[in-house]
Amino acid sequence: MIDWDVAVSTGVRLVRPGPQVDLADARQAVAQLRELSVTAQGHVREFTGMEPLEPAGPAVVVDRPGWIKANVDGFRVVLEPILDRLGGERMNEGGAAQLTTAVGSRVTGVQLGAVLSYLAGRVLGQYELFLPPDPDGRAPTGRLTLVAPNIVHTERELDVDPRDFRLWVCLHEETHRMQFTSSPWLRDYVQQQMQEMLLASNIDAGDLLNRLRSAGEAVADAIRGGDGNLIEVFQSEEQSEIMDRITAVMSLAEGHGDYVMDAVGPEVVPTVAEIRRRFQRRREGANRVDKVIRQLLGIDLKMKQYEEGAAFVRSVVSQVGMADFNRVWESPETLPTIKEIRNPDSWIARVVRPAALQQEFGESPAGPPPGGGSADGPSQG
Q1: Of 23, 160, 164, 259, which is most buried, counting CB atoms within 10 Å of its CB?
Q2: Compositional bias of type Gly residues: which residue ranges (predicted)?
Q3: Which of 127, 168, 163 has its CA nearest to residue 31?
Q4: Sign of the C-alpha dihedral, residues 284, 290, 292, 294?
């Protein structure tokens, strides 16, 4: 259903080249990013009180084509088993159906490659959750990746101290690595939600036509300056419920990363306040075409959700401290729902206060109710 080779070749062909950097400066940037990624590990561990359960070496530093290839590999790990399952029925439908599937897979590969080529020029780094399995079983289950050309381009554009900016980025991405390496259930939870989202995507021809019509309206609305985006257009009601769970956990993860990268302090990143101010101003000052693309892909919507996630973290930590905030990483039942992200007091009342009462009266914590900790909480099924 997706031609992965076409996705890679399309993305690599369309992606813009990075900034002009002489060889010595490029080597210095790569070496420093690797060094700072290790430095950031200690700062994140000390500040958050979280402990990784697997070894973490230096970050992998890549260029834009390397980022595209890595992301296609990640998509394959998550999506290919489900796509094979969904597409298996078509194998017995005859030559015409198989030809349609083959053509459609190439078209989908081109679409995926085009989206990745756009993102490859903007992503500074990421923690890759889903890697092809290691035959020897020795490699870590995830990988921290930094996109050197984008980091260099951004620090030049912002006119900020390169070392401070590089460490600032590493603090954010190392926080993501800490989240997933200290909470062994979290990776499987995210993968499960993504796969459930895909399995809920079956729609009939009439519904598809309606959604395509709505997609056209969303594009027109975005160009006019409205709020239309393509993410919500193609979601069924069931998918919207799953997307709420995905949005909640990703808002938490990204908000936590933003909180840590700014809160570690000027002792570590002396110019952190100036970097954040200029970075935010740059984000808000994108050109009109870029704003339309970001909106259609749902990127601006996600940025808003990540701001909500950071506000959630700040509120909870200020009220109950870092140790009790870290209860979010204990299980799917202690994750905040999307409603709790927007109302941190409700998460504290559901997760932190009951645990404190049980401890005060010498009771062992009770297990969560079936399906999660609240009526709209996440579940594993």
Answers
A1: 259
A2: 372-381
A3: 163
A4: negative
